[in-house]
Structures are given as C-alpha cells and as structure tokens.
Amino acid sequence: MPDLSALFAGTRFVVVGGTATSLYMPTRTTEDVDVLISAADTAAAEDALRRAGATLQGRLSIGGTSWRLTSGEILDVLTSSAPWIDDALHHPNRDAAGLPIIALAYLVLLKLEASRGVDIGDLTRMLGGATEPALAPVREAVRTYLPDAVDDLESLIQLGRLEYEEAAGSTDDSPNSGNSPAG
To answer: 156-160: long-range contacts at Cβ-Cβ below 8 A with a sequence spacing of 24 or more?
Structure first.
C-alpha cells in the first residue's frame, strides 16, 4: 500500500473501499486503494498527486478520480460534499498501521449512497456481523443523514444476519448453535 499520509500531507482523508471493509467484515479482494476526501480539498489533493508523479487515469462514476501511482498501484480518490463528510474525516478508526479508516457509520452512508451491487453485498456482511452496540451509531447516522433509508438499513442488517446464520449452520451440525455474530 502506498504511503497515503505522505501523499496527502495537509489533506484530510480516510481509507474506504475494500481496504476499509476488512476492518468490519472478512477481507475481500481489492485491486486498488480507495480514499475519501472532502470535495473542498480536491484541487489540493490532485496537485499533491501530480507532484508525487501520479498519472490521472480518469473520472469515477461515483465522484472522484482514479490515479496510477509511480509504484504502478491504482489509487481511487473519492470526493464528497455530503453533510457528514467533516465528521467522517475528523473521527476515523485506525487500522494496525495507524491509517485513518472510515468509521462504520460513515462507510454505511457512503455505500448506501453509491448503491452498487458490491456495496450492497458489503453492507449485508458488515451489518450482519456487527454487534448491537456497533449498530447504534450506524442507525443514528442513517436516521440523521438518510432518513429515507432507515427501513433499507434494517433489512440489510437482517439479511446479513441470515447470511451469517447460514454460514454458521453449514459448519455446525446444530441448527441453533447460538453462534450469531450479531449478539
């Protein structure tokens, strides 16, 4: 993974995408690194990437740009002007290496807004495996920023729990083993 802190010196960012989801669910393969910045920081981030020798590959349909770094790695820089972006950038979780990873509540908002197939799959796995205390800030964020998605959120939680129950049932002979991760 590139040294994102050096690349984005002076620009607040959080890691999103497959790298971020691995903090909240079993790891899925990803071919690139995705970061999220405030739309207000777009020019500064793009200037920093150019100075670092990155090459613009194109625009992203979900908002932002894709870059090829000098190492050959692809970096997708998503931009947002959503009302929750400043909170997301100021209150990240940290991975073992200290990288700022978007908090689950904001990752859920981002994926609900994108609503691509991969995002819905990620949502069911992340939400189905989350504990009730972990879901409380997610529910609050959705109520606050995407109130029309509250029912969808609850459906995704239930679908995810069913996925985990089915997976637990396939490895455990007892149908009521109590191994649901959503306790």
So the answer is: 156/120, 156/123, 156/124, 156/127, 156/128, 157/127, 157/128, 157/130, 157/182, 159/124, 159/128, 160/123, 160/124, 160/125, 160/126, 160/127, 160/128, 160/129
User: What is the C-alpha separation between 5 and 99, in angstroms, rounded?
Assistant: 8
Q: Which residues are CB-neighbours of 6 under 8 A, at least 6 positions away?
A: 52
**Which secondary-structure segment (H or E) carries 128?**
helix 117-128
The answer as to whether 125 is a domain residue is yes
Is residue 183 domain-resident? no
Domain span at residue 85 reads: 4-171
Nearest to 98 by CA among 10, 14, 9, 7: 14
Establish if 29 belongs to a structural domain.
yes
Query: Tens of pLDDT along 64-106?
Result: 999 999 999 999 999 999 999 999 999 999 988 888 999 999 9
pTM of the model: 0.82
Note whether residue 176 is domain-resident. Answer: no
Q: State the CATH number of the domain containing residue 57.
A: 3.30.460
Domain count, the chain: 1
